Amino acid sequence: MTGQANPFESLQEQVDDAAAFLDAPPGVLTRLKNPERVLETNLTFELDDGSLETVRAYRSQFNGDRGPYKGGIRYHPGVTRDEVKALSGWMAYKCAVVDVPYGGGKGGIAIDPADYSDSELERLTRAFATELRPLIGEDRDIPAPDVNTGQREMNWIKDTYETLENTTAPGVITGKALDSGGSEGRVEATGRSVALAAREAFDWLDRDVAGATVAVQGYGNAGSIAAALLDDLGADVVAVSDSSGGLHAPDGFDPRAVKAHKAETGSVNGYGDAESITNEELLTLDVDLLVPAALENAIDGDLAADVRADLIVEAANGPLTPDADDVFAEKDVYVVPDILANAGGVTVSYFEWVQNRQRFYWTEERVNEELERVITEAFDRLVDSYQANDAPNLRTAAYVVAIERIVDAFDQAGNWP
Asked: Which residues contact 159 (CB under 8 A, 6 or more apart)?
């Protein structure tokens, strides 16, 4: 994996690519390429031995023209200011492309959570929630889970906020456990939208997803659920990987069994009698569908030249560099971009927020039906944009849709003062 491209510069380049198809004033485009504000803070918390540790944390609020800022919080040693700025921008455009009435936000703490106990992580999370308190709120900024965070951390943030504000506000955060105001279908939502986007892409290309070979790089929540749902559609998942390496089985895996093996052992390695491969080898396998579901910058221009997949559906945020996009356009490899493919998470987060505000909760069947409607309608709008603008790739077409919607909201509100 490359890891070298600056994700914020990649975001800005993607916006510039789409701007060529739009009649937007330069000042507006500058606004659409930069966050409105970024919190950068040092969090000091107590370790179990009584000593204190200080770590760096961030929250970026990119654009609020279409509604409250929305985006996850990740715990990862690679978290940087530029990374959260890029991720908050991708969230703004993701919400716009699927027409969810939110802006974009993102946050993170630069740690490896494996280095800390559960009680240390709770104290750290509550310290971050205290710093976020002036920024977040049901109508201001609504965080959610991301890399290495989940229901537990969201519950802690909700409880901290409600305690300090002396109120009940379940809509201040999404991705919560069900008994804390979470939504049915939220855990599976990101992987489900990836599978739905892949299904729609195969149909658009007049191909059948049943029998298609699939490689999934990154076997966390999104990757493992996407693999299982693609398997349900009849696809053959022939390769999977996580940070420790990968597996290849030409005859296919049972994705749910691989997930159970990882839950038991901490890694996909050692499952069955599959061949061990590296992440880079997985990315260059000759498969029908490649699902990059790890971190950003997994595929750069050099690696893209060796990728043999016919279709790429991005489960991760920013897994391709702009150079890789150029290579795939030249090779006629279609890429369903992250801002649509993995938008299931924020879409069902929106459903959760709606349910929290109404204090009326939906069945899982209704959540999944509404999610399918949102993703399929967004895919159709994406294809319309791609064909009408003669765009170089689906990503640029998606940004055209998203930017048009954000610019319209900005114009309708007017610039004040």
From this structure: none
DSSP labels, 378-396:
HHHHHHHHHHHHT-SSHHH
Catalytic residue list contains 106:
yes
Catalytic residue among 70, 94, 106, 259: 106
Pairing of strands 334-336, 311-313: parallel
pLDDT band at 246 (very low <50, low <70, confident <90, very high): very high
Q: Is 317 helix (H, G, I), strand (E, B) or coil?
A: coil
Output the pLDDT for position 25.
84
Specify the 3-state DSSP secondary structure of 342.
Answer: coil
SS3 of residue 205 by DSSP: coil
367-395 core/surface letters (b: 16 or more CB in 10 A; e: else):
bbebbbebbeebbebbeebbeebebbbbb
Q: Which residue has the tokens 């959260």?
A: 84
| Nearest residue to 180 (alpha-carbon basis) of 15, 14, 355 | 355
**pLDDT beyond 80 at 131:** yes
Nearest 5°: the CA angle 312, 148, 363 is: 75
Cα-based distances in Å from 229 to 189, 195, 352, 390: 11, 6, 22, 32
Residue matched to tokens 């391709």: 320
Q: What is the pLDDT of residue 273?
A: 85
Whole-number pLDDT of residue 23? 86
